């Protein structure tokens, strides 16, 4: 908490040292800073005429199970129709490796057809992904931690059709395949061995998704107005190739309030639960594994809490620090609870707070370079991202 206060004080001092916002100040991003004012006018003309806006970010982040993961994130943003009537599409490509124990490739497209008639949302991952687990329930002790190693394949694809202004419905398909599962660093008994179904070796879950969404955000890379509500029912069945019969529900809501010209108050909450059937251990609702876009639970360790149901809430204040839009900051707080296993009883609530810096990476797609620090009891984490966290 002391580090949060010191970082916030630094942001306030930085803001006071910068000129105040004015509408007449020319907007800048990192490309302008790197290439300087002499080439700025020519370069901006070339960039403004492009059909696709690229942002590339090499960075280091913490990896589960120890070590460092090197991530080079590439984001391509573009319009498939008139920008006044069509939302900004974007595709993330994120290769991951620490050259020893973790590697993978993530591809996350969000495509809007002309006039937003269709919205195609994908999440594709192939990775060797070690992760810690502490068992099930709302407040497992730290000393119960074990390490689960596995290979992972995820294929999620939604196809949403507009049926009214801001309202979309449609089907989807989902695959979660964990294989070569092995639990290590066990002191007493392994969590996978104690679970109600065998989870060593592999688990394969696949099924249909049915989604209703309300989306009035014009730019999902950096929402500044509007809101977002999503409800997805997932039905896993052997009919679709799954090893398990299972139904789950995920509901996500987000709202963005413009407090001042450069200040945005962002609020998010979600509920994720197993409705019925048999769920593999690694598919249960857990920290940082929600089936949605964006990053949640900053400041709480991945997989720290896991159960059959999860509640989450977050509030974030986003503010400008420079008049040219180059630098901004955020302060945030979130709270998470998972149920006592097998119930809908939420007895324990776990909070985290944090601060972050925003640097305009591409002023044409409005993509920020996000640098965040999150803190909770006995843990802290650093996040680097292209775009806002939610």
Question: What features would you describe in this structure?
Answer:
With about 400 residues, the chain is mainly beta. It is about 10% helix and about 50% strand. The protein contains 4 helices and 17 strands. The chain has a 17-stranded antiparallel sheet that branches. A hairpin with a 5-residue loop joins strand 4 and strand 5. The longest helix has 16 residues. It starts with a helix and ends with a strand. About 5% of the residues have low confidence.
What does the secondary structure layout of this molecule look like, with pairings?
Layout lengths: L1 H16 L12 H6 L4 H9 L3 E11 L5 E11 L10 E9 L5 E10 L5 E11 L2 E3 L12 E19 L2 E18 L6 H4 L6 E15 L11 E10 L9 E15 L2 E15 L31 E12 L6 E12 L11 E13 L4 E10 L2 E8 L4
Antiparallel strand pairs: 1-2, 2-3, 3-4, 4-5, 5-7, 6-7, 7-8, 8-9, 9-10, 10-11, 11-12, 12-13, 13-14, 14-15, 15-16, 16-17
State the total count of DSSP E strands. 17
Globular, elongated, flat, extended or rod-shaped: what is the shape? globular
Calculate the terminal CA-CA distance, rounded to whole Å: 23 Å
Give the rounded overall mean pLDDT.
87
**Low-confidence runs of at least 5 consecutive residues:** 60-70
SS strand fraction: over 45%
Structural class: mainly beta
Radius of gyration (Å)? 21 Å
Order of helices and strands: HHHEEEEEEEEHEEEEEEEEE
Report the major sheet.
17 strands, antiparallel
Helix content: under 10%
The helix count comes to 4
């Amino acid at each position: 908490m002391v580090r949060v206060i010191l970082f916030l004080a630094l942001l306030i001092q930085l803001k006071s040292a910068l000129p105040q916002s004015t509408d007449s100040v020319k907007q800048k991003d990192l490309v302008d800073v790197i290439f300087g004012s002499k080439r700025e006018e020519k370069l901006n003309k070339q960039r403004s005429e492009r059909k696709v806006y690229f942002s590339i970010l090499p960075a280091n982040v913490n990896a589960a199970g120890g070590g460092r993961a090197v991530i080079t994130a590439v984001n391509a943003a573009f319009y498939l129709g008139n920008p006044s009537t069509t939302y900004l599409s974007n595709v993330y490509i994120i290769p991951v490796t620490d050259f020893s124990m973790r590697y993978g490739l993530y591809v996350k497209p969000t495509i809007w057809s002309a006039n937003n008639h269709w919205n195609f949302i994908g999440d594709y991952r192939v990775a060797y992904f070690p992760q810690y687990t502490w068992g099930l329930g709302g407040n497992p002790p730290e000393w119960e931690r074990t390490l689960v190693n596995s290979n992972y394949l995820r294929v999620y694809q939604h196809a949403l059709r507009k049926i009214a202004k801001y309202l979309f419905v449609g089907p989807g398909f989902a695959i979660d395949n964990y294989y070569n599962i092995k639990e290590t660093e066990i002191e007493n008994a392994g969590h996978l061995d104690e679970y109600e179904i065998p989870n060593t070796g592999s688990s394969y879950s696949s099924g249909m998704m049915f989604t209703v969404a309300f989306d009035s955000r014009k730019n999902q890379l950096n929402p500044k107005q509007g809101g977002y509500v999503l409800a997805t029912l997932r039905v896993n069945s052997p009919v679709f190739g799954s090893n398990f019969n299972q139904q789950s529900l995920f509901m996500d809501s987000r709202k963005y309030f413009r407090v001042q010209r450069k200040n945005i108050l962002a609020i998010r909450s979600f509920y994720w639960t197993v409705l019925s059937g048999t769920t593999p251990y690694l598919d249960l609702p857990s920290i940082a594994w929600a089936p949605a876009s964006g990053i949640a639970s900053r400041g709480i360790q991945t997989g720290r809490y896991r159960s059959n149901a999860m509640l989450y809430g977050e509030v974030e204040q986003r503010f400008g620090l420079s008049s040219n839009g180059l630098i901004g900051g955020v302060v945030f707080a979130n709270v998470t609870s998972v149920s006592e296993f097998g119930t809908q009883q939420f007895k324990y609530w776990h909070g985290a707070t944090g601060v972050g810096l925003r640097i305009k990476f591409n002023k044409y797609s409005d993509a920020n370079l996000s640098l965040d620090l999150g803190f909770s009891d006995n843990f802290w984490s650093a996040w680097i991202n292209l775009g806002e966290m939610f």
